[in-house]
Design goal:
Radius of gyration: 39 Å
Strand order of the largest sheet: 3-2-1-10-4
Shape: globular
Strand content: 15-25%
Oligomer: single chain
Number of strands: 10
Distance between the termini: 74 Å
Amino acid sequence: ASSSTTATTSASPSASTSTSSASTSTSSPASTALTTTSATPTTTTTTTTPSPTPTVTTTPTPTPTTTPLPPRTIRSAQKRLNDLGCSAGVVDGVAGTRTKAAIIKFQAANALAQTGTMTTATWRKLEATRKVRCDRRPVPAYSGSGKRIVVSRTQNYVWLVRSDGTVRWQGGIIDNPSVWSSGTYRTGSVCGRPAHVRYNSDYSGTLRLDHFTRLRTNLCGVGFHRIPVRKSNGAQIHADWLLGTNLQASHGCMRVSARTASEIWDFTQSAVTVVVKP
């Protein structure tokens, strides 16, 4: 209805104009002739020739190919990795997840890119006379002095260092650097929570965190503990051989083996400095 009303209203001025023009045309023939002459338009036609579209030839990027290692070579690598404490598991010539984890641990210990594959640099180091074992590594430089715990997030590894500089214990970890920053901390109670909890629980209440040793960070619930155990069946949520790799991530705590958790618990009965390196 609104659209119809608008159409009727706009038609009225048009009719009025038409009447006025007719009246002018009758009273002044000269005006009519002038109007007729000036109304003749001059039309100029311009023809534009479109530019041709350039042809672009795209060369496809070749897809890189990876040649799998023969079983004999994989078995050789697995044996060498086991001899170096990297826990590659059964020497079966199959490059599964456990072999990948062992390679990552070896690469981390020897400052190589942690690809989990037998790169040329990894092979050379594996066959070299001098190389670092996965289970016995030197304490990182510039990690303080005196009794302390040293963590390397690059290596996914922890050392318990006595006051005389000797190493009491060491082992792999799994943590999550995105939750809290590297730096120097202390063990102890925080947020009114105890420094040690023999059988702690996660937030869901379904997992048990054995031998929990708390770190005094800006978070209340961060610490070292054994790999979480399911309360329903007592099984760990992942295997020990994943420790020391980047194949898993925690919710913020540092997961360690049952033995390492027990060693940290005993080592920190009084507050200890913890140096966490990137």
